[in-house]
Amino acid sequence: MKLYSDAELAHLLDHPLFRLVAQTADELELECYVVGGFVRDLFLERPSKDIDIVVTGRHTIGGNIDTKGNTRNSILLAQALKKKLGRHTTLSVFKNFGTAQLKAGNTEIELVGARKESYSHDSRKPIVEDGTIDDDQRRRDFTINAMAICLNSARFGTLVDPFDGIYDLEDKIIRTPLDPDITFSDDPLRMMRCVRFATQLSFQIDDKTFDALSRNRERIKIVSGERIIDELNKIIMADTPSRGIIDLHRCGLLGIIFPELTALEGVEVRNGRGHKDNFYHTLEVLDNVARAGGDLWLRWAALMHDIGKPRSKRWDPAGGWTFHNHNFLGEKMVAPIFRRMKLPMDERMKYVEKLVSLHMRPIAIADDEVTDSAVRRLLFEAGDDIDDLMTLCNADVTSKNEERRRQFHQNFELVKEKLVAIEEKDRIRNMKFAVDGDEIMQMFGLPPSREVGVLKNAMKEAILDGIIPNEHDACVEFLKKMAASLNN
Ligand code: CTP
């Protein structure tokens, strides 16, 4: 981050657009400030897309608040700006919220009136009054998001920072401006935002603020799934997503929004034999995939790859703990979790299902003998997702045993080489079989039936095992022999 003096801020904001806002606000005798994420990102030297402007000051014509309690100053300023900016600018007014939005090229400016909301004892409905910039700042989520810079000409570039957001930026602290219980109960989504900002920025959550996350966690239930997943996805997309997931877990939010994940936590020991803690293992895999540049869906696949383990866990007196078929159980859990969490139910969900189901295959091949036929099958089933599957599989090796890791990576490289060689030779990815079901029915005069499936499957197995090439004549000949042997 960079500390700027007011003079430097004025220089940074010395842009025709801000100057125009300043001049127009002066003419209308309104005060205005750029606030929120834009100011935070200025100090963090990060690009910021949206510009939020708060408008205060008493407007004489008709007053600032209309009969419905909506602020008007922001709309008046936006309309005046629209006139000056001309027809290449679009203006949208949201009267009920007292906000206006200006779009000029790629720049989006949102203007809001400063409001003061107070709650009377006998009503939960807020009484809206004309507010000052300070009133506006105290209703914001975090001190680092509650800084304002004045745009009026006389004070252009003056930082207004009543909650010392600048020091929190410097110390890398996420803290609420007010008592966190108030800030979070005003909008419980802020609990997710709190963890999200801490994760994205690698900041610490202030202790009091963190305690309030735990106390208020149940309130997350009143927030829509869409808003929650939006924040969770931002956490997952951070450089080290495990930090955010652990924070969510420590304050108890994770158990509410994603109980299947917290169910992975813990180690059970019997007869001196324990299994690994699958929660922390999963987070390591997620971080590994993030480090490898995985996109959101590969990261979801990492988060869910072992999700079926608690349900498949068994104790075998001879072999110790087993998790047989956890990949298939996990695959079945993907759709219901995606549906509940408002994640897309389309090909992205299918992709996660596929990777969860196949995640052990490359390791199994590497552990065993790396045969052509095993690799061919893997290529066939993974199709175009083979590279992502290999990334996930590589990320899944979190053993602390140096020798085991070395052995694995050696075999893994062999699988990779074979994948390339076989793909070049046989073009298995997205392979279409030389003879399809319709032709099989015609060939043998069969109606759609189990027999057709049996023949088709036998042909597929023979191709994948390298017994016959995927060519029409060879397949027909194989099918005829197969049918004859079935008839006998
Ligand atoms: N804000 C808030 N409470 C919320 C959402 C937003 O107080 N639940 C305030 C914060 O001051 C925030 C500003 O509104 O800085 C703008 O919000 P938004 O555009 O959602 O976030 P940014 O801070 O701009 O950050 P990002 O773009 O990363 O979401």
Question: What's the topology here?
Answer:
Layout: H1 6-12, H2 16-27, E1 31-35, H3 37-43, E2 50-56, H4 73-85, E3 89-94, E4 99-104, E5 107-113, E6 115-119, E7 126-130, H5 133-138, E8 148-150, E9 159-160, H6 165-171, E10 173-174, H7 180-186, H8 189-201, E11 204-205, H9 207-216, H10 225-236, H11 241-250, H12 253-257, H13 259-262, E12 269-270, E13 273-274, H14 278-291, H15 296-304, H16 309-312, E14 314-316, E15 320-322, H17 326-340, H18 347-358, H19 361-367, H20 372-382, H21 386-395, H22 402-426, H23 437-444, H24 450-464, H25 472-487
Parallel strand pairs: 2-5, 10-11
Antiparallel strand pairs: 1-2, 1-8, 3-4, 4-5, 6-7, 8-9, 12-13, 14-15
Helix pairs in contact: 2-4, 7-9, 8-10, 8-11, 14-15, 15-18, 17-18, 19-22, 20-22, 24-25
The protein binds cytidine-5'-triphosphate (CTP).
Descriptive report:
This protein is an alpha+beta fold and 488 residues long. It folds into four domains: 6-169, Beta Polymerase, domain 2, CATH 3.30.460.10; 173-257, Hydrophobic Seed Protein, CATH 1.10.110.30; 293-426, no CATH class; 437-487, no CATH class. It is 53% helix and 12% strand. It contains 25 helices and 15 strands. The strands form five sheets. A seven-stranded mixed β-sheet has the order 3-4-5-2-1-8-9. Strands 6-7 form a two-stranded antiparallel sheet. Strand 4 (99-104) and strand 5 (107-113) form a beta hairpin. Helix 2 (16-27) packs across helix 4 (73-85) and helix 8 runs antiparallel to helix 11 (241-250). The chain binds cytidine-5'-triphosphate. Cytidine-5'-triphosphate binds at residues 36-37, 50, 52, 140-141, 145-146, 187, 189-190, 193.
